[in-house]
Write a structure and sequence with these properties.
alpha+beta, Collagenase (Catalytic Domain), Hemopexin, 3 domains, 5-stranded antiparallel β-sheet, 10 helices, 19% helix, globular
Length: 495
């Protein structure tokens, strides 16, 4: 499922700092730098035609999504608050709703196909060399403290070794000889991470950029303990959190006195490795005892409503679609996440992307014919252009019963198909006509269960139906392929 571990090397550019900084002579980022930033972190695609005037609207919409994800007013304007977020040093991993593959998560999910975690809960690490910025004892203490955040929160143990091969290799370099991409020097990308399959012969590697000035217990320089803890979180399988005060937030917040893990960090690591066996007390930023923590999918969620965050590996789907950005979106409750061929990403609240859209949907479908996205709940339908609600919506659904089970786009006739129970309706967006419907679903496709949870057409023309943990694949001849159903959790979510 993954690349050759012998040649697999992922370059993690973190703390993107000076590249997108506003020029001191200017009060705003140039359009070029704004677009580069949005592309870098997965909010914007390269234009097919750079001269296409409609691309400006795509840039504005991408900016709105960036603002929503960062809890800013989604104005689509490059205001000071938005610039402030873009100016901050941050981790180089793409945000949860990226266009490209989330490289680091690919590696985490390749760990022996164990759902994004290591097989063992007892891991070793080795510091191969030291930065001259700090005395050796301080470096060892900072790294040891970074690991301790995670071992205090979850059923994990870490042991430092002085010789031989360790699971996680830590070193400082001015130029990286492991990858072909060298370090940039101070201020741009302070470290690189190479995460390889943690088998008996392959190990994780954390390289810190020696051109940075590494410090501890100081507001000056780059704090080694907090940076290391963030990267160890990635190495353990965690993605980014949407909480700014979380350790796993993409933006580096600098040195913090009495730093504590956010409950979202704890939720994520406990989901992967379980709670600490003897339930020791460990600090949380909200001051919550461990007994109140409900594990959820890492590393995104609300500390107040963490129990409602669906785990993509076990959650039943409300809806699924191939939507904007040509990404696969899966919906459950109030949350949505994207799926790549390497598995699921972290859930995020639906209304962070689609403004004014409620949760617990009945169905969702994106029309490749009109580029409109339709969401159904009860007797209402919401229609969006990209992520903007169209004028006059939501509307009452007519001539189709409320609470439909699923919806999909049928490529052979460019119609939308609505399914409820064992019946289906086909809808032409250009010439609406339901005169001949409903019809049995079996007249369209045979061998499918009634009342599916969700359905959609993928970009290869295949149609997928989901019910519980099972899914069925339908070919271009509208016949269910052999060997189905298969497991959604294993094949789609890579759990």
């Amino acid at each position: 499922l993954g690349p050759n571990p012998g040649t697999f090397c992922t370059f993690l550019a973190a703390f993107l700092n000076t590249l997108f900084f506003v020029n001191k002579r200017s009060n705003a980022l140039s359009q070029f730098h704004t677009q580069a930033y949005l592309k870098q972190y997965g909010y914007l695609n390269d234009p097919a035609d750079p001269q296409d005037p409609s691309y400006l609207e795509e840039v504005i919409e991408a900016l709105r999504v960036f603002q929503r994800v960062n809890e800013l007013p989604p104005t689509g304007e490059l205001d000071e608050a938005t610039l402030g977020v873009m100016r901050q040093p941050r981790c180089g991993l793409e945000d949860p709703f990226n266009k490209k593959l989330h490289k680091y998560k690919v590696m985490a999910r390749s760990f022996a196909n164990s759902g994004g975690r290591w097989r063992r809960k007892s891991l070793t690490y080795r510091i191969h060399n030291y930065t001259p910025d700090m005395v050796r004892s301080e470096v060892r203490k900072a790294i040891r403290s970074a690991f301790k955040y995670w071992s205090d929160a979850a059923d994990l143990t870490f042991t430092e070794v002085d010789f031989g091969r360790a699971d996680i290799k830590i070193s400082f370099h001015k130029k990286d000889g492991f990858c072909s991409v060298p370090f940039d020097g101070r201020g741009l990308f302070p470290f690189q991470i190479h995460s390889l399959f943690p088998t008996q012969t392959i190990y994780g590697v954390v390289h810190f950029d020696e051109d940075e000035f590494w410090t501890e217990a100081s507001y000056y320089g780059t704090n080694l303990r907090i940076v290391a803890a963030h990267e160890i979180g990635h190495a353990l399988g965690l993605g980014h959190s949407q909480f700014r005060s979380a350790l796993m937030a993409p933006v580096y917040a600098g040195y913090r006195v009495n730093f504590r893990l956010h409950s979202d960090d704890v939720n994520g690591i406990q989901t992967l490795y379980g709670k600490k066996s003897k339930n020791p007390m460990f600090p949380l930023s909200e001051g919550k005892p461990i007994s109140t923590i409900t594990p959820s999918t890492p590393t995104l969620g609300s500390p107040v409503e963490s129990s409602s965050i669906p785990n993509p590996c076990t959650a039943d789907l409300d809806a699924i679609m191939l939507g904007p950005w040509d990404k696969t979106f899966a919906f459950s409750g109030d949350y949505v996440w994207t799926i790549s061929d390497m598995g699921h990403n972290s859930p995020i609240r639906i209304n962070r992307l689609w403004w004014e859209l409620p949760g617990s949907l009945n169905a969702a479908v994106h029309s490749q014919r009109t580029n409109k996205t339709y969401f159904f709940k009860g007797s209402k339908v919401w229609r969006y252009t990209r992520f903007m609600l169209d004028y006059g919506y939501p509307k009452q659904v007519k001539r189709v019963p409320p609470n439909i089970d699923a919806a999909l786009y049928l490529q052979i006739n460019q119609k939308l198909v609505f399914i409820k129970g064992s019946d289906h309706w086909q809808f032409d967006e250009v010439k609406p006509n339901f005169s001949f419907y409903p019809k049995p679903l079996s007249k369209l496709i045979s061998g499918l269960p009634s009342s599916p949870d969700a359905a959609f057409t993928w970009n290869n023309g295949k149609i997928f139906f989901f019910k519980g943990d099972n899914y069925w694949r339908v070919n271009e001849q509208l016949k269910v392929d052999s060997w189905y159903p298969l497991s959604k959790a294993e094949r789609w979510m890579r759990c």
